[in-house]
Write a structure and sequence with these properties.
The chain is an alpha+beta fold. The protein is built from five helices and six strands. It is 44% helix and 10% strand.
């Protein structure tokens, strides 16, 4: 504590030297009936801090996740069925549905034409990663994040109609969609090309088997037709032989009767 203002010692006598006063030996415990200091006032802004938004440090420290207010600029390709299915309940407390608003959306991770929204649960404050497009995996047991179906279809469109990455970004900029790096577009094109090539090989094998089976059936029908023709010729030849034999026998009997 600070020095005493009154120049007195512990016994109450006046003294010329200022002395520090010590704390009283007995202090009564004060109980606060109403604690008005309970609560948290966040001054971190829209994203929140570690107290009111657990896990926000990972979003702020990631280079792939956009946590600024510019994430809601531009357009997005959203599949409503997929988005609403993942908004049914929280992944931690299972309360739902999750609220989709400017306050609950804490960030976005854009993946080509698809992406994920990081939405905070209003019950347990947990951050949920919600995709706004359908995804697929070539090998379900493999590790890593799945690919968005719209990106694979964009790669197929590059092969079929759009052309190179520059033309794709020109189309996206015209539609006010976020651009995609040339490297990622090449990856999408390569993945779509492998799938198209695999489907073409599968279709060709199936058509070859169907053509082989059809050829086998045609050959069997031709063999059956030839056998039927041979049987018919044999039967007709036998009938003609029998007719000639009968006529010859009748002529022989007639000649014998004429002699007698």
């Amino acid at each position: 504590m600070a020095d005493s203002v009154v120049c007195r010692d512990k016994r109450g006598r006046f003294s010329k030297i200022l002395q520090e006063t010590s704390e009283p030996e007995g202090i009564e415990n004060i109980e606060i009936d109403h604690n008005y200091g309970v609560g948290h006032l966040c001054i971190a802004g829209a994203t929140g801090c570690a107290v009111c938004c657990p896990g926000i440090e990972k979003l702020l420290g990631s280079t792939k996740i956009n946590t600024s207010t510019s994430w809601h600029s531009g357009r997005r390709l959203v599949e409503w069925g997929t988005l609403l299915d993942h908004l049914k309940f929280c992944s931690r407390c299972y309360n739902g549905p999750l609220i989709l608003s400017h306050q609950t959306i804490k960030g976005e991770m854009k993946c080509g034409l698809g992406g994920y929204l990081y939405i905070q649960c209003t019950s347990c404050m947990e951050l949920n990663r919600i995709p706004y497009g359908s995804t697929h995996k070539e090998n379900p047991s493999s590790k890593g994040m799945p690919s968005f179906c719209v990106n694979t279809k964009l790669g197929a469109a590059m092969i079929d109609a759009l052309g190179g990455p520059q033309r794709v970004n020109n189309v996206l900029s015209t539609l006010n969609l976020p651009p995609i790096s040339h490297k990622n577009l090449k990856v999408m094109e390569r993945r779509a090309g492998e799938m198209i090539e695999g489907f073409a090989n599968l279709s060709m094998d199936q058509r070859c088997r169907e053509a082989f089976e059809a050829e086998k059936s045609n050959a069997a029908e031709d063999e059956n037709g030839i056998e039927n023709m041979l049987d018919t010729d044999t039967d007709s030849h036998t009938d003609m032989t029998d007719t000639n034999t009968d006529s010859h026998t009748d002529m022989t009997d007639t000649n014998s009767n004429n002699r007698y």
